[in-house]
Amino acid sequence: MIALATDLTSEGDLYRQLPNEAASFHVTRVAFENPTTLENLRKMSPRLTAAAALLAPLQPLRAICFSCTAASVVIGESEVRAAIQKTAGKVPVVTPASASLAAFVTLGAQRIAVLTPYTLATSKPMAAYFARHEVDVTRFECLGLDDDRNMALVSRQTIFDAAIAADTPEAQALFLSCTSLPAIGVIADIERRVGKPVVTSNQASAWAMARLGGFTDHRPARYGRLFEHALPAHTFGEAA
Predict the structure, then answer these.
(1) Is the pLDDT assigned to residue 160 strictly greater than 60?
(2) Is the dihedral angle over the CA atoms 94, 126, 219, 21 positive or is it negative?
(3) Which of 208, 206, 211, 188 is nearest to 198 (CA)?
(4) φ, ψ for residue 29 (rounded to 5)?
(5) What number is the average pLDDT over the span 28-55?
(6) Residues 31, 36: Cα–Cα separation, whole Å
(7) What's the predicted TM-score (pTM) here?
(8) Which pLDDT value is given to residue 237?
(9) CA quadruple 94, 96, 98, 101: dihedral positive or negative?
C-alpha cells in the first residue's frame, strides 16, 4: 500500500480486513499537504514513483494499492498506474475508485447513492468519474470537510446517519468514499438498515487486494456483502 503521509485510517483498516495469519502486507507513504483540494491532490502524481520504489525491493508483489480515492480520480487511474509501475514493475495497481467500480459490477449495481466527507468542489470529479463509467448517482451528499485528518475523526454515528440520509429508493448500493473515513466498522449496520450492499473505499480496496493475493475464500461477514463475491476477471490487469 502507498498511503498518504496524513493518513490515519486506511492502513489499520486493511490490516483488519485481510487474513493476517496468511497475508504479508507492506506500507509506504507519499507526501501530501492539506487542505484536500484538487490542486494538492494532483501534486502527488510525480511523487508516486519514488514511493513505489520503496516497495519494489519486496518483489514479487501480488498488488499495490494507492490509498486515496479522490486523488486516484483527480490524477487519473492510468497516470497513477504508470507512475507506480515505473519502479514497481507490472504489478496490478489497485485504487479505491477502480476497486469500487469493480465492486459495483460484481454486485450488479448500476445506480448508487454516494456519501463523501469532502467539500463539494473536491467531490465533483467523483460524480463525473462514475458518470464516465456509466454508473448513475441517484444522490450525492458531502460532509464538507477539507482536511483528511478531520475526516478520520468522523464518528460512527455521524457516518451511519449520513449514509442513511444519502440513500434513495432507486439506489442499488451505497458508496462511502474516502480512505480516511473510518467507515468499515459501520458497514454491516448500514446494510441491515437499508437492505442493500454498502461499498466503502477501504473495504473495496481490501476486497480487491485479498482476491489478487489469492485469498478467494476470505469472507469476513462483518465487512459487508461484497466479501461474498469474487473479483471480476482481469480487473486490474492481473495475469490469466
Answers:
(1) yes
(2) positive
(3) 188
(4) -125, 155
(5) 97
(6) 13
(7) 0.95
(8) 63
(9) positive
What is the grid cell recorded at 71? 486523488
Q: What is the DSSP string of the chain?
A: -EEETT-SSHHHHHHHHS-TTT-----EEE---SS--HHHHHTTGGGHHHHHHTTGGG-S-S-EEB--HHHHHHH-HHHHHHHHHHHH-S--EE-HHHHHHHHHHHHT-SEEEEEESS-HHHHHHHHHHHHHTT-EEEEEEE-----HHHHTT--HHHHHHHHHHH--TT-SEEEE--SSS--GGGHHHHHHHHSS-EEEHHHHHHHHHHHHTT-TT---GGG-GGGGSPPPTTTT----
pLDDT band for 21, please (50, 70, 90 cuts).
confident
